[in-house]
C-alpha cells in the first residue's frame, strides 16, 4: 500500500512542494489506528507521520495510556499541504480510498481521529472537533461492509497551543484504552 501511495499521482498535494509521500508508522496488525490530518514539515522530511513536536506529544500520551506499541498511525492525506495548511475536503477525498484500504488491511478494533479535519473527513460530519470529541461514532467503509468504532479527539498540535485542553484529550485516551481492553462480547 505504501508503494501504491508513493506512485499515486492523483493528489495535487504531491506536486505542491512535498518531498515524499508520508504513509504510516506502527505495527501493521495494531488494534488501534490513529488518523491525523496531514504531514507537516518534520513528517515530510522524515517520511513518517507524527514525528515533530505534536507527534512527540502524541507518542507520550499513547505511551502513558499503554497504547504506544498498539497504534498504527497515518493521516487523511499523505503529502504535506503547502505552508502546513489544513488539507481540503477534496484532497482528503482523493486519498480516502487509500485510508480505507489501510483500515481494511490493518483491521483495527478502534480508530482515534485526531483533529477536526480528520474527524469531519472520516465521519462525514460538519460539527467542529470540540463538539465531536469524546463521543463514539461508527466509521463505515464506502460499501458499508466494514464498521469500526471511531473516537474523535483533539489534535496534539492544538494541545501544544492550548495546554489546558490536555485533560480532555487524556480523558478520551483513557476511554479508548478501556474500550480496547474490554473483553469481546460473545456473538
What's the arrangement of strands in the largest beta sheet? 2-1-3-5-4
Q: With helices defined by DSSP (H or I, 4 residues minimum), what is the helix count?
A: 8
What's the count of strands? 5
**Given the helix and strand composition, which structural class is it?**
alpha/beta
Task: Describe the main β-sheet briefly.
Answer: 5 strands, mixed
Using only C-alpha atoms, the radius of gyration works out to 15 Å
- Fraction of helical residues: 40-55%
- What amount of the residues lies in strands? 5-15%
| Shape annotation | globular
Spell the H/E element sequence: HEHHEHEHHEEHH
General description of the model:
The chain has 187 residues and is of the alpha/beta class. Helices cover 40% and strands 14% of the residues. The protein has 8 helices and 5 strands, in the order H-E-H-H-E-H-E-H-H-E-E-H-H. The chain has a 5-stranded mixed sheet with strand order 2-1-3-5-4, sandwiched between helices. Strand 4 and strand 5 (147-153) form a beta hairpin. The longest helix is centred in the middle third of the chain and has 18 residues, at 89-106. The N and C termini lie far apart (32 Å).
Amino acid at each position: 500500500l505504501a508503494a501504491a501511495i508513493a506512485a499515486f499521482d492523483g493528489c495535487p498535494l504531491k506536486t505542491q512542494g512535498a518531498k515524499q509521500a508520508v504513509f504510516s508508522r506502527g505495527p501493521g496488525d495494531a488494534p488501534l489506528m490513529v488518523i491525523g490530518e496531514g504531514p507537516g514539515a518534520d513528517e515530510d522530511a522524515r517520511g513518517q507521520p507524527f514525528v515533530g513536536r505534536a507527534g512527540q506529544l502524541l507518542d507520550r500520551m499513547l505511551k502513558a495510556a499503554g497504547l504506544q506499541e498498539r497504534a498504527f498511525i497515518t493521516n487523511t492525506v499523505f503529502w504535506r499541504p503547502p505552508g502546513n495548511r489544513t488539507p481540503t475536503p477534496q484532497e482528503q477525498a482523493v486519498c480516502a480510498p487509500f485510508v480505507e484500504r489501510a483500515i481494511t488491511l490493518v483491521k483495527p478494533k478502534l480508530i482515534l481521529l485526531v483533529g477536526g479535519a480528520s474527524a469531519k473527513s472520516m465521519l462525514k460530519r460538519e460539527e467542529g472537533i470540540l463538539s465531536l470529541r469524546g463521543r463514539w461514532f461508527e466509521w463505515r467503509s464506502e460499501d458499508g461492509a466494514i464498521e469500526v468504532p471511531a473516537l474523535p479527539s483533539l489534535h496534539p498540535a492544538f494541545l501544544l497551543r492550548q495546554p489546558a485542553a490536555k485533560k480532555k484529550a487524556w480523558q478520551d485516551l483513557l476511554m479508548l484504552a478501556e474500550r480496547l481492553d474490554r473483553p469481546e462480547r460473545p456473538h
